[in-house]
Design goal:
The complex is a heterodimer of chains A (164) and B (564). Chain A contains four helices and nine strands. Chain A is an alpha+beta fold and 164 residues long. In chain A, a hairpin with a 5-residue loop joins strand 2 and strand 3. The mean pLDDT of chain A is 95. Chain B has 564 residues and is α/β, with parallel strands linked by helices. In chain B, helix 1 (5-15) crosses helix 2, helix 3 runs parallel beside helix 4 (76-90) and helix 11 crosses helix 14. Chain B starts with a strand and ends in a 23-residue tail after the last strand. Chains A and B meet through helix 1 and helix 2 of A and loops of B. The structure holds flavin-adenine dinucleotide (FAD), thiamine diphosphate and magnesium ion. Thiamine diphosphate binds at residues 391-395, 418-420, 444-447, 470, 472, 474-478 of chain B.
Chain lengths: 164, 564
């Protein structure tokens, strides 16, 4: 099953490589990983998407907790949560028809066109990872020049929060 | 008071109560060595290879419970130390390793003797630090000792760039430490302890399986009391030997690949298993599917990640052995627990039948020395009271099987990593920590050559270690596998062109003795131990093709042992 593990860790040099090293050394897979400081700059928040059986996920969370720099973590998939990912995508648009089609799609998906040249559009799109996937499929004929995805960020619903 | 980084380091170590630093100098640590020269609170032990420094610190730690301390230079100094760091990591040994680093301004430049020590050691340390500001040095060192010695212990590396050791700042020994990200749980959950006790009380065929955690937590007294109260068989892992007295009737010996028949059969038939400070290693479980198939399992471990990693357990208890076992004892006593002698009688009857197989028997009739006999004699002559270090191979297993350890911290071996070359340097650390004690290194002619240069260190520091080399002329453990599983094709397991160990010992300024006849062995061992102030290298030429029995072949269940 897919799990989103949210980690609060000391904002120390090398903290990221400890997490990445743990995953490669123990053969766990990482689907995506994002990290940035929080409002308290001594802490980083990392969101890690992984897959595995219940036993593997249990080991992953235990091993992560064992890292000295990890302050707290939560497996968001265990409860209601919201997840978002941002994508920047540059597409080639030749001919008026094609350009209109892209604009229409961007509207449907509630994206923004953030840069324009006579032959390209750069689009910004935020949403659930599935929505971004769907957009890529929908683009269909418009040739994609570049795709940049942020990886998943996620937060629990309701009043619960992950903080120190 | 303002001090340089180098002075802060030496001051801090002394303030922290460190007695010995095992090390080797080099460019990046010259300021530190100068500071060492200008103080007299710390003793520095100069080794002949950095790997030996780590094993010596490790032996010191295992035999005392105090953290071992190592100091090496950057680059090759650090890489040479890695094997010893990984050895300590696998066996959860508290250790702090100071590595020199090139000056901050050169880091990342492929500078002379630069290596990313933090990166190289990351997978085999509990934690590591790169010091970037001299103002952080004392606190980082404090954290290093705190992390190394608490929770599940382990090695911590502190990498110090050369410029930091020259910079000056105010020093005050940090007494207190708090880390929001690191708070090991030591007290067991009361509800879980109650569940565990209930399960023990209802058991018909209970069994204790205990390991290194008992030794690390100095909990053998509590464990022994629990064993006696429950009147159940007790088995130990290789790391747990001495945690329960070997001479006790309830002790059924080692379990696992080279465990006794009675221990492995009891594991395979028990209905409640109480696993304490042991990590269900694959050498212990054999085929996981067939491990303790009839048992409900209680598992006490300070590291949540050890629990249900290999074997799913029924009652997990996260906590320190001492705390948890004492809480169990309290509960059992409060409940007025008395073992049901009738039910247990049947269990013991069965165990005695297994024990009667006498799976560790060997014959002394032949004209070759049996290695098992040698270990038995060493046990007799040292009255079972020596510190015994070992290397890795058949001799290690024979030492584990035949030198019955009645006390904890007496058996010092590399279990998890299985590092050949561990024995002699580890014995140096043990002997320094216990100058009056008898320290024996049981080794093989293969292993001893991996750190033989330390004979020189032993001379310099007057360490009267007794090296008992069970010389079978083979990389015996490898040969045994080749005999059993590769149709006797002894590919590169023969130690050709061995040195004359007697002359070698003499060349290093020690005493060498050689024996090859069973009749002469007892005399030779006695003579060895009579030379109280000298290091003696006793080279015992043993039966070359002797095997370690019992043996559970890879993939088999524990009840599918190969017996003699
Ligand atoms: C050639 C060779 C053959 C071997 N054959 C065998 C064999 O036949 N049988 C065998 O048993 N081993 C054998 N070994 C050793 C084996 O590889 C493992 O090292 C050993 O079994 C592990 O022992 P352990 O489970 O006690 O764990 P350790 O490595 O000692 O781990 C200790 C456990 O206790 C926990 N712990 C630490 N501190 C505490 C505390 N304060 N409170 C609670 N828990 C704590 C830790 O988290 C860990 O889970 C062999 C090794 C070699 C090299
Ligand atoms: C550093 C290292 N290299 C290789 C091995 C693999 N190995 C395990 S036991 C062994 C043979 C050891 O030979 P010896 O020291 O003579 O002991 P014996 O088995 O003959 O008693 C080898 C090569 C190891 N454990 N460690
Ligand atoms: Mg040998």
């Amino acid at each position: 099953m897919r799990h989103i593990i949210s980690i609060l860790m000391e904002n120390e040099a090398g903290a990221l490589s400890r997490v990445a090293g743990l995953f490669s050394a123990r053969g766990y897979n990482i689907e995506s990983l994002t990290v940035a400081p929080t409002e308290d700059i001594t802490l980083s928040r990392m969101t890690l998407v992984t897959r595995g059986s219940d036993e593997i996920i249990e080991q992953i969370t235990k091993q992560l907790n064992k890292l000295i720099d990890v302050v707290k973590l939560v497996d968001l998939a265990e409860g209601p949560h919201v997840e978002r990912e941002m994508m920047l995508i540059k597409v080639k648009t030749s001919g008026a028809g094609a350009r209109e089609e892209v604009i229409r799609l961007v509207e449907i998906f509630r994206g923004n066109i953030i840069d324009v040249t006579p032959t390209t559009y750069t689009i910004e799109l935020t949403g659930h990872a599935d929505k971004l996937d769907a957009f890529i499929v929908a683009l269909d004929k418009a040739p994609i020049l570049e795709t940049v995805r942020s990886g998943v960020s996620a937060i629990s619903r309701g009043t619960k929060s992950l903080h120190v | 008071m303002k001090l340089t980084g180098a002075e802060i380091l030496t001051r801090f170590l002394a303030d922290e109560g460190v007695e010995y630093v095992f090390g080797y100098p080099g460019g990046a640590v010259l300021h530190i060595y100068d500071a060492l020269h200008r103080q007299d609170r710390l003793k520095h032990i100069l080794v002949r290879h950095e790997q030996a420094a780590t094993h010596a610190a490790d032996g010191y730690a295992r035999s005392t419970g105090k953290p071992g301390v190592v100091l090496v230079t950057s680059g090759p100094g650090a890489t040479n130390a890695v094997t010893g760091i990984a050895t300590a990591y696998m066996d959860s040994i508290p250790m702090v390793v100071i590595t020199g680093q090139v000056p901050t301004s050169l880091i990342g430049n492929d500078a002379f003797q630069e290596v990313d020590s933090v990166g190289i050691t990351r997978p085999c340390v509990k934690h590591n630090f790169l010091v970037k500001d001299v103002k952080d040095l004392a606190m980082m060192l404090k954290k290093a000792f705190y992390i190394a010695t608490t929770g599940r212990p382990g090695p911590v590396v502190v990498d110090i760039p050369k410029d930091i050791t020259a910079e000056v700042t105010e020093y005050k020994y940090p007494r207190q430490i708090e880390m929001r990200s690191y708070n090991p749980v030591v007290k067991g959950h009361p509800g879980q302890i109650k569940r565990a006790v209930k399960m023990m009380v209802g058991a018909k065929r209970p069994m204790i399986y205990s390991g290194g955690g008992v030794i690390l937590d100095d909990a053998s007294k509590a464990l022994t009391e629990l064993g006696h109260l429950l009147n159940c068989p007790v088995t130990n892992t290789t790391m747990g030997l001495g945690g329960f007295p070997a001479s006790d009737r309830q002790f059924v010996g080692l379990l696992g690949m080279h465990g006794t028949y009675e221990a492995n059969m009891a594991i395979s038939n028990c209905d409640v298993m109480i696993a304490i400070g042991a990590r269900f290693d694959d050498r212990v479980t054999g085929n996981i599917e067939k491990f303790a198939p009839k048992a409900k399992i209680i598992h006490v471990d300070i590291d949540p990640a050890s629990i249900s990693k290999n074997v799913k357990v029924d009652v997990p208890i996260v906590g320190g052995v001492n705390n948890v076992v004492k809480a169990m004892l309290k509960q059992l006593k409060a409940d007025g627990f008395q073992p049901n002698e009738e039910v247990l009688g049947k269990w013991w009857e069965q165990i005695e039948k297994w024990r009667a197989k006498d799976c560790l028997k060997y014959s002394t009739d032949g004209d070759r020395i049996k290695p098992q006999h040698a270990v038995d004699l060493v046990h007799q002559i040292t009255k079972g009271d020596a510190f015994v270090t070992s290397d890795v191979g058949q001799h290690q297993m024979w030492a584990a099987q035949y030198y019955g350890f009645d006390k904890p911290r007496r058996w010092i071996n590399s279990g998890g990593l299985g590092t050949m070359g561990f024995g002699l340097p580890a014995a140096m650390g043990v002997q320094l920590a216990h100058p009056k004690a008898q320290v024996v290194c049981i080794t093989g002619e293969g292993s001893i050559q991996m750190n033989i240069q330390e004979l020189s260190t032993c001379l310099q520091h007057c360490l009267p270690i007794k090296i008992v080399c069970l010389n079978n002329g083979y990389l015996g453990m490898v040969r045994q596998w080749q005999e059993f599983f590769y149709d006797n094709r002894y590919s590169h397991s023969y130690m050709d062109s061995l040195p004359d160990f007697v002359k070698l010992a003499e060349a290093y300024g020690h005493v060498g003795i050689q024996v090859d006849k069973p009749a002469d062995m007892e005399g030779a061992i006695k003579e060895t131990f009579k030379l109280k102030d000298r290091l003696v290298f006793l080279n015992i030429l043993t039966d070359p093709e002797e095997n370690v029995y019992p043996m559970v072949p890879a993939g088999a269940g524990l009840d599918e042992m190969i017996l003699i």
